[in-house]
Design a protein that fits this description.
The protein is an alpha/beta fold. Helices cover 42% and strands 18% of the residues. The longest helix is centred in the N-terminal third of the chain and has 20 residues. The protein starts with a strand and ends with a helix. The chain binds nicotinamide-adenine-dinucleotide and uridine-diphosphate-N-acetylglucosamine.
Length: 342
């Protein structure tokens, strides 16, 4: 069965491609390489023993995208391709609407012109909930107006995908609202490749530990939480990748038309920034240089998932320890460092 993975050389896409291949799916990857490296393709092969079909295409180029659908019959599409920096989206909103929404519109137009039934999984984010009133956050929690254009593109894409499933006879879809993915593949052959100074916590921690950054600033310790630092639901990248396989398998079994649903993907457990930092130090036997700084603009206090819906409906559960994700993240940073040295 053929699955198209857009943005498949990126962080989550590459880990998902591996899980799909390991489950016997025939994977084709499209990526523009705007935020990824072609070497990831070789490393997917090194891990799985399979050479994946790859096309360097920007999804905004509709004709090129269309030609891939003319040459293949896909049972599923996992749509990761998007830009993901909140701060960049604030500085350049047009780029985010063009790239993230434009790509999704092209993909949907092409799917609607096809005869075969296509099952689509869309990468959404817990960011759509903003600061939820009730924790843990379940799927009935309202989707708020977004503070950043990035968040707005996730909200819009969810809406246009849902609308398309209502109109079309050949599209069923699921949006997965990820909480905070961390960690790398156990082989250290693939992992997160942040561009420049990382915005996200774990790459900042590992880059500080390796000496690439002087110190980690913890953004505020005066929040109303157990130690004053913000709470997030960190999820092991392997678990997140497996959630996509489970979601595709679930959609493949659905006989009815016009199916659309959305699910939280997290562990259901919240950790504070300080708890995560201490866990990193303990599991990797490292002393991290950090200080408490000011709050970061736009940060929500606490977000962790109620995962009952995805657990019950799709049968997926997070299995891997967060401490293991922190171990793999550190091994990955060491690997990147050894490559830098050569
Ligand atoms: P990533 O940047 O590592 O991967 C995205 C990939 O898409 C990259 O390889 C990039 O080159 C490619 N891409 C971007 N625009 C493209 C286009 N127009 N055409 C073709 N390829 C394009 O990011 P990621 O962390 O793997 O995120 C994957 C998806 O998950 C994104 O949609 C992101 O918004 C979403 N998401 C990520 C997180 C997270 O914390 N990483 C959380 C919630 C949601
Ligand atoms: C960020 C994005 C969100 C996206 C999510 C997953 C913002 C405002 N939100 O969320 O849209 O869906 O990533 O990719 O950028 N922290 C520090 N020091 C650092 C970095 C982070 O203390 O150097 C803290 C943050 O204040 C936060 C926690 O660590 O409390 C996690 O931060 P981060 O990894 O950026 O994820 P989110 O803020 O959840």
């Amino acid at each position: 069965m053929k699955i198209l993975v857009t943005g498949g050389l990126g962080y989550i896409g590459s880990h998902t491609a591996i899980e799909l291949i390991n489950k016997g799916f025939n994977v084709t990857i499209i990526d523009s390489l705007v935020n990824s490296n072609i070497k990831v393709l070789d490393n997917i092969e090194n891990i799985t023993g399979k050479r994946v079909e790859f096309h360097k295409i920007d999804l905004r180029s509709k004709d090129e995208l269309y030609s891939i659908f003319q040459k293949n019959i896909f049972s599923g599409v996992v749509h990761f391709a998007a830009l993901k920096s909140v701060s960049e989206s604030v500085n350049n909103p047009k780029l985010y609407y063009d790239n993230n929404v434009g790509s999704t519109e092209n993909l949907l137009d092409i799917i609607s012109s096809r005869k075969e039934k296509i099952n689509l999984i869309f990468s959404s984010s817990c960011t759509v909930y903003g600061q939820a009133k009730k924790l843990p956050i379940n799927e009935s929690s309202p989707v708020l107006n977004q503070e950043s254009p990035y968040g707005e593109t996730k909200k819009i894409c969810e809406e246009i995908i849902q609308n398309q499933t209502i109109k079309s006879e050949n599209l069923n879809a699921i949006s997965l609202r990820y909480f905070n993915p961390i960690g790398a593949h156990e082989s250290s052959l693939i992992g997160e490749l942040p561009n420049g100074i990382p915005d996200n916590l774990v790459p900042y921690i590992t880059q500080t530990a390796i000496g690439k950054r002087k110190e980690l600033t913890i953004f505020g310790n005066d929040y109303p939480t157990r130690d004053g630092t913000c709470i997030r639901d960190y999820i092991h990248i392997k678990d997140l990748a497996e959630a996509h396989v489970a979601a595709i398998e679930y959609l493949l079994k659905i006989k009815k038309q016009n199916f659309y649903d959305f699910f939280n993907v997290g562990t259901g457990k919240g950790l504070t920034v300080l708890e995560l930092v201490k866990m990193f130090e303990k599991i990797n036997n490292i002393k991290l240089n950090y200080r408490i700084g000011d709050r970061r603009n736009g940060d929500i206090i606490s977000a962790y998932a109620n995962t009952k819906k995805v657990n019950k409906t799709i049968g997926w559960h997070a299995k891997n320890e967060i401490s293991n994700a922190l171990k793999t993240a550190w091994k990955w940073e060491l690997k990147l460092h050894s490559l830098d040295d050569n």
